[in-house]
Design brief:
The protein has about 425 residues and is of the alpha+beta class. Helices cover about 15% and strands about 40% of the residues.
């Protein structure tokens, strides 16, 4: 690490540096309340990487807010006594001003540093922006943070990115002085509202996990929904769904439909293994290809996702837009994951020159069960060992698999995952 300041600067350098490259900085300065920081570059390429500001607390935790060159926000935590495994999920419970807690999974990017993504359109950043205080509970410890002048900090960080984009780090100065005449190019979360967005039909898949009508889907399936969220099993009339809770970090959402249900999905107790057969159930391109759900088969290709993210499985079972939130089932018919996304083929081709095939992802049941436990939802686990025919698995899944649909803002469609 080749940063010019001491511990806090080292942390701000580390938080957006990849495992293969360090960061250099700070260039210019950010100083507001207890927050100190500036702009940083990739030490290998010299290109701008991010702006960040942080503060040290009596608990020994360094805490910072970051924004990368593409406008992606994040929170970072570092503690000298932590011993973390990069890529392994790091659960935290964040509470702002005593409101409803956010159960998130940070991403260790070093043995002592954790990053928590904070999408600009999320409830997490909305609460963070206006909060006066925050608590973070992890590994049996509770940490408290005074969020001094946080609302002013976010537009200053956005101003940092805008200025560096315009003039480069060589001309970096005091980013704390906001431009008076023209708006900052990178929109901060508290920017003035844009013009009304066009609405479009947003669809995905969900599945019942409790006899009381609780359904699991992806958070991005219901993100940006305007008005009622509808859900219906194949061939039945839609019913109104209530959004109970969501975990945007792990891309999970909990819905509920009125009624009592006998047939629900069971979650496999034993961990899935690489090479095991899996079946994906969902409603891809609903109404365009078919009005019924589709069934695709494949294997577990890897026990981790992109950049060794251990919250995810990589699967070869084909998924398409509309599969998001659907159940991934083992050969026993039990849930072993929640279908989440497919690899962005266009970006992959641009980066490597090769066309990816059968690279799709599902959220593991560990994150799913943590989410359901935190939401106090009863669910059933299974240790069934008998293998079923694919046709039997599909027939059983018909009773607990739902089409999820709503009207959503067009702007949300751009940020949704590929399989949404």
């Amino acid at each position: 690490m080749k940063c010019r300041a001491a511990a806090i600067a080292a942390l701000l350098c580390t938080i957006f540096a990849s495992s293969n490259a360090d960061a250099r900085g700070p260039y210019g300065s950010i100083s507001i309340g207890n927050w100190q920081g500036g702009a940083y570059t990739n030490d290998q390429t010299g290109s701008f990487s991010h702006c960040a500001a942080g503060a040290r607390y009596a608990s020994g935790v360094y805490f910072m807010v970051t924004i990368d060159g593409n406008g992606g926000w994040g929170l970072g935590f570092m503690h000298e006594q932590w011993t973390l495994t990069p890529g392994q999920a790091f659960p935290l419970t964040l509470t702002f001003d005593g409101q409803q807690p956010f159960n998130v999974h940070g991403i260790p990017i070093g043995d002592k540093v954790v990053r928590v993504p904070m999408p600009s359109n999320s409830a997490l950043i909305a609460q963070f922006r206006k909060a006066k205080g925050m608590t973070a509970y992890t590994q049996g410890q509770l940490f408290q943070f005074s969020l001094d002048q946080t609302g002013q900090l976010l537009p200053i960080l956005a101003n940092c990115v805008a200025k560096v984009r315009q003039s480069g780090v060589a001309s970096a100065g005091d980013f704390s002085v906001l431009p008076a005449a023209k708006a900052v190019a990178v929109a901060a979360p508290d920017s003035a509202p844009a013009k009304p967005d066009r609405l479009f039909d947003q669809k995905g898949t969900g599945f019942l996990v409790s006899t009381n009508g609780h359904l699991v889907t992806n958070a991005h399936v219901v993100q940006g929904c305007v008005g009622d969220i509808q859900g219906n099993p194949s061939g039945e009339a839609p019913a109104k769904l209530r959004l109970v809770s969501s975990d945007e970090t792990n891309d999970l959402a909990l819905l509920q439909v009125t009624g009592s249900f006998k047939d629900i999905a069971k979650i496999r107790d034993k961990a899935i293994q690489s090479g095991d057969t899996v079946v994906a159930i969902g409603y891809p391109f609903h109404g365009l290809l078919t009005s019924d759900f589709t069934v695709t088969t494949g294997i577990v290709s890897s026990l981790s996702g992109i950049l060794n993210d251990t919250r995810f499985l990589q699967i070869s079972a084909a998924v398409q837009p509309g599969n998001s939130g659907g159940p991934l089932l083992a050969s026993s018919g039990d849930v072993v994951g929640v279908v989440a996304a497919k690899l962005n083929a266009i970006k992959f081709v641009r980066a490597t020159g090769n066309i990816p095939e059968n690279i799709n992802f599902a959220i593991k049941t560990g994150a799913l069960r943590d989410f359901l436990d935190n939401s106090v939802v009863p669910y059933q686990i299974s240790d069934a060992k008998d293998e079923l025919k694919t046709a039997d698995i599909a027939r059983n899944a018909r009773a607990f698999t739902f089409l999820i649909s709503c009207k959503a803002k067009a702007r949300e469609k751009e940020t949704a995952k590929n399989s949404g």
